[in-house]
């Protein structure tokens, strides 16, 4: 027959059980919460430093994005590019935007400001479609800044429709969001130098083979046309294209094609050729007006030349002024066309 425990023993067992509940259960709960919250801050920073050492722009899928970018704890900023590089996605500017973003990341990676407080990453649609759903994105490319504390604000999304996606614009936007000044270093491009040397070699060869007949060098009309072509090329922005490497055209999110950049800080390749043609038409109108005034031929023919020249000058000057108004917000002047 079993005997009951004395009261002192029962109280001792009760106290030991209470101590066990107070010591073991909170520890188990803490371990469970730690597993649910994911990696610690030190583990995240260490992983990001390892990844950025291998690649300046870290590629993220859905799980890595939630773990390293969205979930706490986080004491670092993340600049993430959402893109669609696959050819089947038909994103005309994603490749150019990715190259510019990569240039900014490389410039930061090898600058004196490089630290564990800012990281660059990208999410491709084919690698993380769930991320696009979470962020409610239906277009690409998109640049977003995720601050070290709090959630992204409206200004943490870069307005590429207004400022473009050139590396200098991206670096300026990052400086506004993080106070980190990134100086962009573009790799040297020797294409123009090689082309210039080839041109000089061609001209030198032409002069050598025609050294006994150089009357064409005294042709004022030929030299005038060459000078005009050079002036048109420089005024239209061909040198800017060579330095910055802008895209040919831009496909807007609604599926339309933009040939004129919406900001005075950028331009497209097609836009420069269009502006060159407008300058040529304006100069042609001026030449016709000058010939009509200085000519000594038939009066009726001179009047026709004057009218045609005036029409060319007025229309195309109004058109190029209208384009300038669309690129430079707040410009008050116009002529014929709005």
Automatic annotation (TrEMBL):
Keywords: Disulfide bond, Endoplasmic reticulum, Magnesium, Membrane, Signal, Transmembrane, Transmembrane helix, Transport. The chain crosses the membrane at residues 190-209, 221-240, 273-292, 304-324. Pathway: Protein modification. GO terms for cellular component: oligosaccharyltransferase complex. The keyword Thylakoid does not apply. It is a multi-pass membrane protein. It comes from the Eukaryota. Residues 1-30 form the signal peptide. One of its GO terms (biological process) is magnesium ion transport. It is found in: Endoplasmic reticulum membrane. InterPro entries: OligosaccharylTrfase_OST3/OST6 (IPR021149), Thioredoxin-like_sf (IPR036249). SUPFAM superfamilies: Thioredoxin-like. Subunit of the oligosaccharyl transferase (OST) complex that catalyzes the initial transfer of a defined glycan (Glc(3)Man(9)GlcNAc(2) in eukaryotes) from the lipid carrier dolichol-pyrophosphate to an asparagine residue within an Asn-X-Ser/Thr consensus motif in nascent polypeptide chains, the first step in protein N-glycosylation. N-glycosylation occurs cotranslationally and the complex associates with the Sec61 complex at the channel-forming translocon complex that mediates protein translocation across the endoplasmic reticulum (ER). All subunits are required for a maximal enzyme activity. Belongs to the OST3/OST6 family. This is Magnesium transporter protein 1. It comes from Tigriopus californicus.
